[in-house]
Each structure stands twice: as C-alpha cells, then as structure tokens.
Amino acid sequence: PVSVGMSLDIASIDTISEINMDYTATIFLRQRWTDERLCFDGNKSLSLDGRLVEMLWVPDTFIVDSKKSFLHDITVENRLIRIYPNGTVLYALRITTTVACSMDLTKYPMDKQMCTLQLESCKT
C-alpha cells in the first residue's frame, strides 16, 4: 500500500442552489506520496509539465456526491507535478465541482445548512 498525504483549500464557493440541493466550489487539491522508482541523484526537485501525469501512477481520488467536476485548463491544464530526489511526488490540481447537499428548508429563512466535501480513494 501507498500512504498518500492530502490537503485541500477551498478557493471559492461560487453558487449555492436550494432548488437543485447542491453547491459549486473551486478547490486546490494537493496530494503527496513516495514512489521509490522515481528516486534520482541530485538535491533539487523536478517540476514536470502536467501532461506527463499520464505517465505516472497517481491516486484514484474522487469527490463523493459530485454531480459535475472539471479541471481548469486555461491556458494549460492546471496541474503541477514535482518530483523530489527521494522519490516523493507532489501532485496539485485546481478543480471546480458541483456537489450534492441535502438541505432541510423547513425553518426557512431561519434555517442553517451543513454541506460536506468528502474525498475518497478506491482500493483495488
């Protein structure tokens, strides 16, 4: 098994829809793991073009309850891959996602809602 560290920053909450019971947010997701096959000599990290991600193993992380998501790609895909000499990989991306949120509107307009943003990974 590979241990994957993860951090997530919410850049913005763009819309909240009571009608569709969802919200849309833009997030920055960073994942870090070590792959001994990528060790190299040197003392500086390598930053790779995001298009090279297809050539590497990356975690199969997904957003639970996502209705629609996309990676930003202006002017190029907003992905960063940095590999350190010890084989540690930093993989970062910017995602906009619309996530289902079951809202209880019985006390509207005095209601309070709690929406979650959950990420998971499949084990194979």
From TrEMBL:
The keyword Cell division is annotated on this UniProt entry: no
Neurotransmitter-gated ion-channel ligand-binding domain ranges (all copies): 1-122
Localization (cell): Synaptic cell membrane
Cellular component, GO annotation: synaptic membrane
Top-level taxon of origin: Eukaryota
Membrane topology reported for the UniProt record: Multi-pass membrane protein
GO MF assignments: extracellular ligand-gated monoatomic ion channel activity; transmembrane signaling receptor activity
Chief subcellular location: membrane
Keywords: Ion channel, Ion transport, Membrane, Synapse, Transport
PANTHER family reported for this sequence: NEUROTRANSMITTER GATED ION CHANNEL
Similarity section: Belongs to the ligand-gated ion channel (TC 1.A.9) family.
Name recorded for this polypeptide: GBRP protein
Lineage, broadest ranks: Eukaryota, Metazoa, Chordata, Craniata, Vertebrata
